[in-house]
Design goal:
The complex is a heterodimer. Chain A is 43% helix and 18% strand. Chain A is built from 16 helices and 14 strands. In chain B, α2 runs parallel beside α12 and α6 crosses α7. Helix content of chain B is 50%, strand content 13%. Classes of the chains: A alpha/beta, B alpha/beta. The complex binds pyridoxal-5'-phosphate.
């Protein structure tokens, strides 16, 4: 596997574990155990049963007819929006909660931005009966109130984070601080392919179910298990990692990563990490991140809280640097346009994150024979307040 | 020139007081005043924090001082200039502490060279992996006569402690309990067992206990089990008051070191 993580946790120049000693024993314990636990047949059985009966997998691979006509290629949507809790995030939290139990952990912590990963974590904690604490930037708790209520209803404690810029990166810092103070009984469920090794690799393996299913479903529908393109949005990069995973070494499959440009790349309000980022260290991983010349981490901007992260997973930094993946940046306005388009043309309200991937179809040069699989990472219900607020302030009428 | 930390550890083997403050706090130009006053008041060595936007091992007090310092305009470049100016007025060993990313952006080799040139004696980079130090950066530290300081915690396995002891050439930073900076050292049974366990390892380097040392009581307790201790958050609280900065520092340090002063 050319793009697999190496023994020391690197993807090319990116990755590793840049953590203070206080975290070392817990991360090392995880590193030593994760592969043995995950590939134990009884783990696999439990994991797959839950994915089927609880999450509702496999999620459909749906040929979007009207989008296909519009873009002049066969567009398939991988319907992660239909997974339990409304996004791909649950694939990872199911995997990590089973792992945590087998490691004898009794308490779970997580960070969340939009609240999707927080909800997915609170959900699996309820499922297995473990204590759950979710750190969320204070600003995000106000922006995403319904998800705070969902987490609380599921029995989690939501801690509003008031340090730094009070958003996702600070919620992550605070979760790390909690883990430093509770290194023995607690497992930290990170929500994307970020953080110190082994997290990026572990989360990618749990999300790999997405591309495993795509291959089988495409073979049935198209007689080939290789699409011409796989398209996904990238915040930290977990849904993209899952959608790419089994295609990484199949170089004839083009991998398309879509980043959030916010107001526009050069406006100072953007989250286009691969363009604006430089090599550095964020949350324990050497990767591309948005920072000042002095190495202070910069606060990003995107209308979608899930893409509002100043870094990018080390796998993606490597795929982009090596040219294996091609990146498009999509602005807030473009994503919202695609969101309305998909809602009206397919009867599917996508998450704002996923809408970034949808807009990228405009930027790709597609041929009628092309088969495109677009990972629809989540549904837009969580974004309703943001969507309505946005549409109220521009000229697009809500109804026709 | 001889490394001032090396000399200190040859001359003094107990009750070593290391005081931490964040560069650029409470004001951009406080560095010189704080350094001089700390030396005069009896600090044996001084650890200066290079402020960072995301100090993940620090509790609320030091986090807040980092935020203020960055707002004040502090940077590695600025700090090195300040040290260059003040270095001939203070003899006390100086250690710089900071997260790896800003140092990496400055350039690790260049940083070692410049820090050494302005009279820094040691570096603490808590998120620098041992492996990277051994494989990549060790020659820079050695060429520029900088000591490297690593942390150990109650969870660090003995084998790793031994390895750290072999890599170190000044002191071992013993984190007092599983916590971020600023939590209190209570001296409960579990903590004392940890202190005694490390004491019994008979490490070749001196140990300084840090995280949660705040007053004379916790300083003296730590000095029973280690060669010295480090005060961080508690000192940041002392210098929060911009008024009477010097008097407040002197009073605080004298209180912490009261027994030593009496003994002399
Ligand atoms: C629906 C959806 N898509 C994408 C993301 C971005 O995360 P990642 O890049 O890890 O897939 C999120 C994060 O909250 C999300 O909720």
């Amino acid at each position: 596997m050319k793009y697999a993580v190496d023994e020391r946790g690197y993807y090319g120049n990116f990755g590793g574990a840049y953590i203070p000693e206080m975290l070392y024993p817990a991360v090392e314990e995880l590193r030593q155990q994760y592969l043995n636990i995950i590939y134990d047949p009884s783990f696999q059985e439990e994991f797959n049963n839950l994915l089927r009966d609880y999450v509702g997998r496999p999620t459909p691979l749906y040929l979007a007819k009207r989008l296909s006509e519009k873009f002049g290629a066969k567009i398939y949507l991988k319907r992660e929006d239909l997974a339990h809790t409304g996004a791909h995030k649950i694939n990872n939290t199911i995997g990590q909660i089973l792992l945590a139990k087998r490691m004898g952990k009794t308490r779970i912590i997580a960070e969340t931005g939009a609240g999707q990963h927080g909800v997915a974590t609170a959900t699996v904690c309820a499922l297995v009966g473990l204590e759950c604490v979710v750190y969320m930037g204070k600003i995000d708790t106000e922006r995403q109130k319904p998800n705070v209520s969902r987490m609380q209803l599921l029995g989690a404690t939501v801690v509003p984070v008031t340090s730094g810029s009070q958003t996702l990166k600070d919620a992550t810092n605070e979760a790390i601080r909690d883990w430093i103070s509770n290194p023995v009984d607690t497992h930290y469920i990170i929500g994307s392919v970020v953080g110190p090794h082994p997290y990026p690799d572990m989360v990618a393996r749990f999300q790999a179910i997405i591309s495993e299913e795509i291959k089988a479903q495409l073979l049935e529908k198209e007689g080939t298990d290789k699409p011409d393109y796989v398209v996904a949005c990238v915040g930290g990069g977990s849904n993209a990692a899952g959608a790419y995973y089994h295609f990484l070494d199949e170089e004839e499959v083009n991998l398309i990563a879509v980043e959030a440009a916010g107001h526009g790349i050069d406006t100072g309000f953007s989250a286009a990490t691969s363009v604006l980022g430089t090599l550095g260290i964020i949350h324990g991983s050497k990767t591309l991140l948005m920072q000042t010349e002095d190495g202070q981490i910069v606060e990003p901007h995107s209308i979608s809280a899930g893409l509002d992260y100043p870094g990018i997973g080390p796998l993606h930094a490597h795929l982009i640097e090596s040219g294996r993946a091609k990146v498009y940046s999509v602005t807030d306005d473009e994503a919202m346009e695609a969101l309305v388009m998909c809602s009206r043309m397919e009867g599917i309200i996508p998450a704002i994150e996923s809408s970034h991937a949808l807009y990228a179809l405009n930027k790709m040069e597609l041929k009628p024979t092309d088969v495109v699989v677009l990972n629809l990472s989540g549904r837009g219900d969580k974004d309703l307040a943001t969507i309505i607020n946005y549409l109220d302030n521009i000229d697009v009428p809500h109804g026709k | 020139m001889e490394n001032r930390l090396t000399r200190l550890f040859q001359e003094k083997k107990e009750n070593l007081l290391n005081v931490y403050f964040t560069a650029g706090f409470p004001e951009l130009e406080s560095t010189g005043t704080i350094l001089k006053t700390l030396e005069k008041s009896g600090a044996d060595m001084i650890e200066i924090g290079m402020p960072y936007s995301d100090p993940m091992a620090d509790g609320p007090t030091i986090q807040a001082s980092n935020t203020v310092a960055l707002k004040n305009g502090m940077s590695i470049r600025k700090l090195l200039l300040q040290l260059e100016e003040v270095r001939n007025e203070v003899e006390v060993p100086i250690i710089l502490m900071g997260y790896l990313n800003p140092v990496m952006q400055y350039g690790i080799e260049r940083f070692c060279a410049e820090a050494s040139r302005v009279g820094v004696d040691g570096l603490i980079l808590p998120d620098l992996p041992l492996h990277d130090y051994e494989e990549l950066y060790r020659p820079f530290f050695e060429r520029h006569n900088l000591s490297v300081i690593f942390l150990i915690t109650p969870q660090t396995p003995e084998e790793r402690i031994r390895k750290i002891d072999n890599l170190t050439n000044s002191f071992i930073y013993m984190v007092s309990s599983a916590s971020t900076t600023g939590n209190k050292v209570g001296g409960d049974e579990k903590q004392i067992q940890y202190f005694e366990r490390i004491q019994s390892l008979k490490l070749q380097n001196p140990k300084l206990i840090g995280f949660g040392i705040s007053d004379r009581g916790s300083f003296e307790l730590a000095c029973k089990y280690a060669e010295g201790a480090i005060i961080g958050s508690a000192f940041i609280k002392v210098i929060q008051e911009k008024e009477n900065l010097e008097q407040n520092i002197e009073k605080y340090i004298r209180e912490v070191k009261a027994s030593e002063t009496v003994a002399q």
